[in-house]
């Protein structure tokens, strides 16, 4: 059976060219949706807030783009071509999805997420904030995993920018870095501590006794001086003897509990170990400036719901940890029944 021959005056129907989305003005799609809905140039123009001439110009562009007349004159007015009828429903769905995508914020459900977060900090801040954070995680986000890394002052800024680290918890001020954001978590002060059966220190610690004692200094790099040394120098007082330097905060309370040295350390650190190590705690005999502890992140993640939730959880863990410490003290000091 032979295919019918095309008459000499017939020409093949034009086929639309490949559509390059990068070259399409999205406003044309909005105009097309209005034209397909109204099937009338003037009403379509009013629907999207254009002038009639602007809508006519948009229709001309659409006809060229799609290779179809789209709207043609019929007996009762304009009518849609078959091609236009095919476009109407998928175009409406597509624009609705686009509006929804642009309107809706990305969702984050702590109770069901299985995401991993990474926090860079030092051991002191981990001991102060981590217990409270873990308690909150267990209640609110049992599927969340947490990695705690030692903060490196040389690299943490770039790691925050790339997302390798979600948060850094450090002492103020924040080292300079582009795009860094910060929030104060707490203000910390100092206390002095010796073991309970210290041969020299009994019920008080005065400045003269303090200067005669040998000291433990927490020095992450193993050198330098601390806040005490700066305060002594500012007042023209003789330097103290630093007998031991330790790189980690958590070593210091144990070291002082097994020696006759004195330790000047953050209050919350000592509160966590005071009873377990049987330590005596005193106010410093010389005024020492308190310091702020900050959480730091990169501005790239300012609006990310998961990061917002993490920052809120870390901020709340400060109070959770403090409350646990107070409760623990009350339990230990309760008289036997």
Number of domains: 3
What is the string of helix and strand elements? Answer: HHHEEHEHEHEEEHEHEHEHEEH
Average pLDDT over all residues: 86
Give the CATH topology of the largest domain.
D-Maltodextrin-Binding Protein, domain 2
Helix content: 40-55%
Shape: rod-shaped
**Strands ordered across the widest β-sheet:** 4-3-5-12-6
* Second-tier CATH architecture of the largest domain: 3-Layer(aba) Sandwich
CATH superfamily of the largest domain: Periplasmic binding protein-like II
Structural class: alpha/beta
Strands, total number: 12
- Low-confidence region ranges: 1-16, 323-337
Summarize the structure.
By secondary structure, the protein is of the alpha/beta class.
List keywords for this structure.
disordered N terminus; five-stranded mixed sheet; 337 residues; rod-shaped; WH-like_DNA-bd_sf; Arc Repressor Mutant, subunit A; 3 domains; transcription regulation; LysR_subst-bd; D-Maltodextrin-Binding Protein, domain 2; DNA binding; YidZ_PBP2; alpha/beta
Q: Could you describe the 3D structure shown?
A:
One of its GO terms (molecular function) is DNA binding. InterPro entries: LysR-type_TF, LysR_HTH_N, LysR_subst-bd, WH-like_DNA-bd_sf, WH_DNA-bd_sf, YidZ_PBP2. Pfam families: HTH_1, LysR_substrate. The chain is an alpha/beta fold. It has three domains: 21-103, Orthogonal Bundle (Arc Repressor Mutant, subunit A), CATH 1.10.10; 116-188 and 292-332, 3-Layer(aba) Sandwich (D-Maltodextrin-Binding Protein, domain 2), CATH 3.40.190.10; 190-289, D-Maltodextrin-Binding Protein, domain 2 (3-Layer(aba) Sandwich), CATH 3.40.190. Helix content is 43%, strand content 20%. The protein contains eleven helices and twelve strands. The strands form three sheets. The chain has a five-stranded mixed beta sheet. Strands 9-8-10-7-11 form a five-stranded mixed beta sheet. Strands 1-2 form a two-stranded antiparallel ribbon. The protein starts with 25 loop residues before the first helix and ends with a helix. The relative contact order is 0.13. Residues 1-16 and 323-337 have low confidence and may be disordered.
């Amino acid at each position: 059976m032979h295919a019918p021959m095309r008459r000499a005056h017939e020409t093949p129907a034009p086929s639309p060219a490949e559509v390059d989305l990068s070259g399409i003005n999205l406003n044309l799609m909005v105009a097309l949706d209005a034209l397909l809905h109204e099937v009338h140039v003037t009403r379509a123009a009013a629907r999207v807030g254009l002038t009639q001439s602007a809508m006519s110009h948009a229709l001309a562009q659409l006809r060229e783009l799609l290779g179809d007349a789209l709207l043609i004159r019929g007996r009762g007015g304009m009518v849609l071509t078959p091609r236009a009828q095919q476009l109407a429903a998928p175009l409406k769905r597509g624009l609705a999805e686009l509006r929804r995508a642009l309107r809706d914020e990305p969702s984050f459900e702590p109770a069901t997420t299985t995401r991993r977060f990474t926090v860079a900090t030092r051991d002191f801040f981990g001991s102060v904030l981590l217990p409270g954070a873990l308690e909150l995680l267990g209640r609110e986000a049992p599927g969340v995993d947490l990695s705690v890394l030692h903060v490196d002052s040389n690299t943490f800024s770039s790691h925050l920018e790339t997302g390798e680290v979600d948060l850094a918890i450090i002492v103020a001020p924040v080292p300079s870095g582009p795009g860094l954001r910060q929030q104060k978590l707490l203000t910390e002060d100092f206390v002095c501590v010796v073991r309970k059966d210290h041969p020299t220190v009994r019920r008080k610690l005065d400045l003269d006794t303090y200067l005669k004692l040998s000291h433990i200094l927490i020095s992450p790099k193993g050198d330098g001086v601390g806040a005490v040394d700066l305060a002594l120098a500012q007042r023209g007082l003789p330097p103290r003897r630093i007998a031991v330097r330790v790189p980690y905060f958590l070593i210091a309370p144990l070291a002082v509990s097994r020696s006759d040295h004195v330790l000047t350390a953050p209050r919350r650190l000592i509160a966590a170990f005071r009873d377990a190590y049987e330590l005596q705690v005193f106010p410093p005999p010389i005024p020492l400036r308190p310091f702020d502890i900050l959480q730091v992140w990169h501005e790239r993640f300012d609006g990310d719901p998961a990061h917002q939730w993490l920052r809120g959880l870390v901020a709340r863990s400060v109070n959770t940890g403090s409350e646990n410490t107070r409760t623990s003290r009350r339990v230990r000091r309760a008289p036997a029944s």
